[in-house]
Specification:
The chain is of the alpha/beta class and 204 residues long. Helices cover 33% and strands 26% of the residues. It has a 7-stranded mixed sheet. β2, α2 and β3 form a beta-alpha-beta unit.
Length: 204
């Protein structure tokens, strides 16, 4: 069942879905592509795209994997489907904080611009770890505050921005503390002076 906040966020994304690509696609294309290079290109596996949005990742993905594209907004999923092209994709309407999959099902999980959107980032990352096989990877691309950085403007804007589209006050290191079976394989700045980061995690 959706919380009141989730309902508000879902309604917000329904409103912005028609213009989302115009704002997001071009500025973030190179960063998305660089992040997705962490997906294996030689060995096929099951890959969860949690919070697929309008599917901007899909044209950048290697074709050998079997993908599951999940989003909690039906309008976003409708816009994503045509981008599936020749990929093997299962489409799922669902919540990234309560994934409708069994434990240890996926070989890889992609979390692009979702961890800092959901109201509880720790649950989102914990659920991704739950459905991931041991030795599998989680590939993140999102905006995170650096530990110890005050960033007063971003924190001040978060109560407003989170009701429209996203949060600006998420510290990844704090989120990771709640999921002890994950370790960082790589962490690199991708955009905006390191505010947007590409992070690859492995499940022990």
């Amino acid at each position: 069942m959706k919380t009141n906040y989730s309902k508000i966020l879902c309604s917000s994304y329904s409103l912005i879905a028609p213009v989302y690509d115009l704002v997001i696609e071009r500025p973030m294309r190179a960063a998305r592509r660089q992040s997705l290079q962490a997906l294996p290109s030689a060995q096929a596996g099951r890959v969860l795209l949690s919070g697929i949005g309008t599917g901007l990742d899909l044209p950048l993905l290697p074709a050998l994997h079997h993908y599951t594209a999940l989003d909690f907004n039906a309008e976003m999923l409708d816009r994503a489907r045509p981008r599936g092209g020749a990929l093997q994709v299962d489409w799922v309407l669902g919540d990234s904080m309560a994934l409708p999959f069994i434990d240890q099902y996926f070989d890889h999980v992609v979390l692009h611009l979702i961890t800092a959107v959901v109201p509880e980032p720790e649950r989102c990352l914990s659920e991704a770890a739950r459905v991931l096989k041991p030795g599998g990877t989680i590939i993140l691309f999102d905006k995170f505050l650096q530990p110890g950085r005050s960033a007063p403007l971003r924190r001040w804007l978060t109560p407003v921005s989170r009701r429209i589209a996203t949060r600006m006050d998420v510290v990844f290191e704090e989120v990771l503390q709640g999921v002890p079976d994950l370790e960082i394989l790589s962490d690199m700045p991708l955009m905006a002076g390191g505010w947007f980061r590409g992070i690859v995690l492995r499940k022990n």
